[in-house]
Amino acid sequence: MADAANQIANRIPTNLVVNGVGRTLDLVPWTTLLDALRDHLGLTGTKKGCDHGQCGACTVLVDGRRVNSCLTLAVMKDGAEITTVEGLARDGALHPLQQAFIDHDAFQCGYCTPGQICSATGLLAEGHASDADEIRELMSGNLCRCGAYPNIVAAIQQAMGQP
Amino acid sequence: MNAYVGTPTSRVDGRAKVTGTAKYAGEFTANGLVHGFVVAATIPRGRIARLDTSEALRVTGVLDVLTHTHRPPLADKDEAWMDEVAPDEGSPFRPLYDDNIKFNGQPIALVVAEDWETAKFAATLVHVEYQEGAFGTDLEAGRDKAIEVQGPHKPRGDAAGALAGAAVRHEADYFIPTEHHNPMELFATTVVWDGNGRITVYDKTQGVQNVHKYLCGVFGKKPDDIRVLSPYVGGAFGSGLRPQYQVVLATLGALALKRSVRVVLTRQQMYGLGHRPATIERVGLGAKPDGTLEAVAHEATAVTSRYEDFSRNDSGWAEQLYRSPNSRYSHKLVRLDVSTPCDMRAPGAASGVCALECAMDELAVALKLDPLELRLKCYSDRDQSEDLPYTSKQLRECYARGAEAFGWSKRNPTPRSMRDDKELVGWGMATGVWEALQMPVAVRIVLTANGHAEVYCAASDIGTGTYTIVAQVAADALGLPIESISVKLADSTLPQAPVEGGSWMAASSAHAVLGAAEDIRRELARLAKTMPASPLGGVDAADVILVDGTIAKAGDKGRAVSIADAMRYGKLERIEKHKLNHFAEDKSHARNTHSAVFAEVKIDEQLGVIRVTRVVSAVAAGRILNTKTGRSQIMGGVVWGIGMALHEETVTDHRFGRIMNANIAEYHIPVNADIHDIEVIFVEERDDRINALGVKGLGEIGIVGVPAAIANAVYHATGKRIRRFPITLDKLLA
């Protein structure tokens, strides 16, 4: 029987463009994009809430699309552009969604918030949500245990320019 | 001067939270940080017969595997393990202490490796053999073995006799399942090794000083050897009141390796922490035909662990709400092979009032009375257990305002009488009640000559808004803009605070701030009055206020000295005041918060799908310090109530004593699409007696009553009474 203890794979060089900055990491193939961001790049704004793609706290934008970074192996995103919550504000000015989340008190503990904001950024880019019901449906991959959902919907509507 | 208190001030920590710069316990780092991964037991009771770590230790990058036979010393007396909120009866759980298995999911080893992936992988190579013991995890199977513990109140009159003789009677069991808090943040601790046995501990906790004292006891350390911080907490809801086992494991790792160690639990492992205990609530109500209550009998039978007796006031809340000459409230425990339950949002009340308020609805049906009319008929202006008046109780106004906003008068009382296209419509209501608690808290305020103030307190902000209300109260009391206030919380070296829980922190921290600010005002007044040609020369010090960055005569802002000038005159760079606030003991009045909850459900009759389309929660909780964050807190409580009514249940396979849905996809909590209109109404409630600001707290009251209002709405929609929570579609279709 092979010795399981010696079955650690070789590291693979991986290039990621994170918030506009090119980064090269040597990663074992099972490192998720989430752990690469948090543990290898120190970008802890992206949160781990379940590590199983069930809660959405780890949502980031990969080439502009929202994905659960805990279900994404980093080595498979070689060359991709990654945007995390740390990359949304520009020159100190908050992204309209970030400001809207503050204005509408769309969080309490703040732990799901980066994922909510990244997910909402993706949602706006997708252009499929036109009213509150559709926002609710299309934001349902992002859990909020504090129960800020109505405020999250209101914040997204503000960022969409809806009253 | 209230520029901020009572206003919808945005969270002062909002920017940190929306930009990802707010750091949580598992996000702090240190040179040479290594990672621990927990190995958990897979049986509910027994002994570890063999624990083989050799294969895990051979993995490149693994530094050590700690077990009960291989670890630094741990305290051997229960007192050391008793934290601030430990149950009085029993022996607290000691992780990695010995070979005893007390519950499924109990930690039995910690693999420490250079990186997290390696530790996680190597944890799969720790081999365990058990000597399994006979076990029980099923509350209903163990009900006949329940032991009675002290109930919440003494009985009054003869409840059993009055119930038996009542003209109209309702008696039923209501079942509340085990629930888990599931805060979004995983439980985590980062222990930074400072050298010479000293450590800095970043922990997910609701009480840094509770954890500090606990760690000092468990590891035999001096207070200066350990510092505990939790600047941001990603939700807790009670799960972080007691020190959790990962803080012990991370500290063990740091002491063993003399290195910094981080331990993060998996979502699955968090189901081995505390939980809302499964409870059978038996409620009996007897009334005259006109609805006058004759008897209330409420008996709660709840799960506890085999090693600690955890109990809360489930059954006693009718004593605050409904007049009855006879009452009996009792609490029983069934000791099972599970981890000890712990407080979870409105512990006791969330479950007990749910049953009481469903029972009141059933009684109203039996009496052919409107459910709201029945509550008003039985309304109690006094706390009957001690026969005390309330410091304030605007519950009548909650009923009136809530009913009006909801449109309750348009309700057709007949079940199944209201429809919206293909959906049945149901309207239900319930009452909520919680305690208005307050605790000793200290703060230190440092005012610098440039007009900036720093406020320090060990209290935690678990998302409740403590940072913000402390800043608001300080800004008003010191007459400064809120931007000139910095708040530092959740560090065990800061002035004393209890755990953040029970809805007591808003009132408790706010009055400590007021006390310290008052000492600063006095010192500034003294300085300003003694300045040459002071405009405040003849003014009584008691009439001097702090406003707009100045020291001024109340009512005459023209007579003022700038704070900077006064401090320059006094040759002071800073004024520092520390104040420990104690609330005056007052046993002459009862202190409670109240709510009236109205809910609308729409139900697809063919599929049994239930939507909660509207909830109105009218809350009377004294003065609301921040109407924005306060509204959010109540809204969150309503969302929790919806979860409790329709979604949440920890399911155990009792043949194996093992939780089957230990993840956040199969343990259902409300998602965005489940939540529709929630209207929060704060009913004005002036309370001059409870404390200076008239503040009561909001953390718990938002959930209480909500599950019952929804259950009652489901009955109204369908004519089916589901007494076993959560109300899922299979139960409706059965």
Strand order of the biggest β-sheet of chain A = 2-1-5-3-4
Q: Mean pLDDT of chain B, as a whole number?
A: 97
The CATH superfamily of the largest domain in chain B turns out to be Aldehyde oxidase/xanthine dehydrogenase, molybdopterin binding domain
> What's the helix count of chain B?
17
CATH class of the largest domain in chain B: Alpha Beta
Query: What structural class do the secondary elements of chain A suggest?
Result: alpha+beta
Count of strand segments of chain B? 31
Regions with little confidence, pLDDT below 50 for 5+ residues of chain B: none
The helix/strand class of chain B is alpha+beta
Let me know the number of strands of chain A.
5
Secondary-structure element series of chain A: EEHEEEHHHH
Pfam family, one (chain A): Fer2
GO molecular function (chain A): 2 iron, 2 sulfur cluster binding; metal ion binding; oxidoreductase activity, acting on the aldehyde or oxo group of donors
Domain 2Fe-2S ferredoxin-type (chain A): 12-88
Protein name (chain A): (2Fe-2S)-binding protein
Your description of this structure?
The complex is a heterodimer of chains A (163) and B (734). Chain A is of the alpha+beta class. Chain A contains five helices and five strands. A five-stranded mixed sheet of chain A has the order 2-1-5-3-4, sandwiched between helices. The radius of gyration of chain A is 17 Å and the shape is elongated. The model of chain A has no long low-confidence stretch (mean pLDDT 95). Chain B has 734 residues and is of the alpha+beta class. Chain B has three domains: 18-134 and 184-236 and 240-272, Aldehyde oxidase/xanthine dehydrogenase, a/b hammerhead (Aldehyde Oxidoreductase, domain 3, Alpha-Beta Complex), CATH 3.90.1170; 279-437 and 587-733, Aldehyde oxidase/xanthine dehydrogenase, molybdopterin binding domain (Aldehyde Oxidoreductase, domain 4, 2-Layer Sandwich), CATH 3.30.365.10; 439-581, Aldehyde Oxidoreductase, domain 4, CATH 3.30.365. Chain B is built from 17 helices and 31 strands. In chain B, the strands form eight sheets. In chain B, strands 3-5-1-12-9-10-11 form a seven-stranded mixed sheet, sandwiched between helices. In chain B, strands 7-15-14-13-8 form a five-stranded mixed sheet, with helices on both faces. In chain B, strands 18-19-27-28-31 form a five-stranded mixed sheet, sandwiched between helices. In chain B, a hairpin with a 4-residue loop joins β16 (382-383) and β17. In chain B, α9 runs parallel beside α16 (706-718) and α15 packs across α16. Chains A and B meet through α1, α2, α3, α4 and α5 of A and α1, α4 and α15 of B. Chain B: GO terms for molecular function: iron ion binding; oxidoreductase activity. Chain B: It comes from Bradyrhizobium neotropicale. Chain B: Residues 19-134 form the Aldehyde oxidase/xanthine dehydrogenase a/b hammerhead domain.
